[in-house]
Design goal:
This protein has helices spanning 16-31, 50-53, 70-85, 117-120, 127-143, 152-161, 185-195, 214-226, 243-248, 269-274, 290-297, 309-315, 327-339, 344-352, 356-366; strands spanning 2-6, 39-45, 61-66, 89-92, 108-112, 146-149, 168-170, 201-205, 232-236, 258-262, 276-281, 303-306, 320-322. It is an alpha/beta fold. Helix 1 (16-31) packs across helix 15 (356-366), helix 8 (214-226) crosses helix 13 (327-339) and helix 11 (290-297) packs across helix 14 (344-352).
């Protein structure tokens, strides 16, 4: 059996969807590493990112590189590469299936639809992104024999918004494994100095963009400071869009108290998480919402997140929730959350509920790779 997996969108700096594609693929390859009857071809871009190169270490895996400009490679070379590879199963685990790719009777196509934000909250997206995802997700639903998604919430939204979908498999994001991580004091010190982290801080991590509701988080944090709050807020993540407006509208009291680190390297991320007193997430809409789960896995025992369906599904009673838009309630809830005892049993149960290994098993069964 020949399986082609599209990883052409992956770079050295991964977004949430790109991390999902990398980690799910990594877990699938590990499960199948001794299967001589299965071969994997990973479609990658040139130059090949180091993280992707590492996936080629198994005997039944090879890389097929695509070159060219971003749009040309994604929408022209990528579909023709997949047609030329003639796989039994074609997998697109990151962004929409390319428009020129139409599947085929002799092959199974699996495409990812992580969420339906382009339909549900289009105002939080750039116009070009909104159009691309609106049409791209419709195309993915039409040509995919199986649609992969990352939560039961997203599954329900897909069924409502995209009636052309045939089958849906929920392959959740996984909590990070801690096997290779230790609280190395030298590394912790290096990371602290690199990003200008204080000794004790509140942490938020996401792309700086409207859907992540940075403006409300900043206003709520300003209220916390006015009530005598002393902890600084570290906001980690790359710039998205409308960042100038977001930065220019920050309340005066937050200046000097909010630390924007920019993108955090993967090797540094565990130390940034583990040094936090609490993790905050004010997102308006998510398909899964991985950062709070990652924070919990790296030892953050206080999670304060927006009351949206994906957060409720993933975190259940392991987090404290707030309603977006109510600044006073946000402040009161934050102060209360910081002073109460954490329910570690509940937190550990939520961490244990999600793993890339479990999601890989679901993927392999749903696609018929392993019966």
């Amino acid at each position: 059996m020949r399986i082609a997996i599209d990883l052409t969108s992956l770079s050295d700096n991964l977004s949430g969807l790109e991390r999902y594609a990398l980690k799910l693929t990594e877990a699938v390859l590990l499960k199948c590493r001794d299967r001589k009857d299965i071969s994997f071809i990973l479609a990658v871009k040139k130059p090949v990112p180091e993280k992707v190169k590492e996936l080629g270490r198994y005997d039944n895996v090879r890389l097929a590189a695509v070159s060219g400009g971003k749009l040309f490679a994604a929408e022209i070379r990528r579909p023709f590469l997949f047609y030329g590879l003639k796989p039994d199963i074609a997998v697109f685990p990151c962004f929409p299936v390319p428009f020129l790719y139409r599947g085929g009777k002799k092959r199974l196509t699996a495409g990812l639809i992580a969420d339906t934000a382009a339909f549900d909250v289009p105002e939080t997206m750039k116009k070009k992104s909104r159009i691309y995802f609106h049409e791209g997700l419709k195309h993915t639903a039409e040509v995919s024999d199986i649609v992969l998604t990352i939560s039961e919430f997203s599954k329900g939204r897909i069924q409502e918004r995209l009636p052309a979908v045939k089958r849906i498999a929920v392959t959740y994001c996984g909590a990070p494994g801690l096997k290779g991580f230790c609280h190395d004091t030298e590394n912790a010190k290096r990371v602290k100095e690199r990003y200008g982290l204080p000794d004790e801080y509140l942490l938020a991590l996401s792309t700086v963009e409207p859907r992540k509701n940075v403006a409300f988080l900043a206003k709520g944090y300003a209220g916390y400071l006015k009530k005598g709050g002393k902890h600084k807020l570290v906001f980690a993540g790359r710039n998205g869009w409308l960042t100038d407006e977001i930065y220019n509208d920050l309340p005066e009291i937050t200046k000097g108290n909010m630390i924007f680190t920019g993108f955090i390297e993967d090797d540094d991320l565990p130390y940034v998480y583990s040094g936090a007193l609490a993790f905050l997430d004010a997102s308006i809409y998510e398909g899964f919402g991985l950062p709070p789960l990652e924070a919990a896995a790296y030892g953050v025992s206080r999670l304060y997140v927006s009351d949206i369906p994906a957060h409720r599904e993933v975190l259940e009673d392991a987090a404290d929730y707030f309603k977006n838009g109510d600044e006073e309630a946000f402040v009161q809830g934050l102060i209360k959350m910081l002073t109460k005892e954490s329910d570690m049993e509940c937190i550990n149960n939520r961490i244990a509920a999600f793993s890339w290994e479990k999601s890989a098993e679901i993927f392999l069964k749903e696609t018929g790779i392993i019966r």
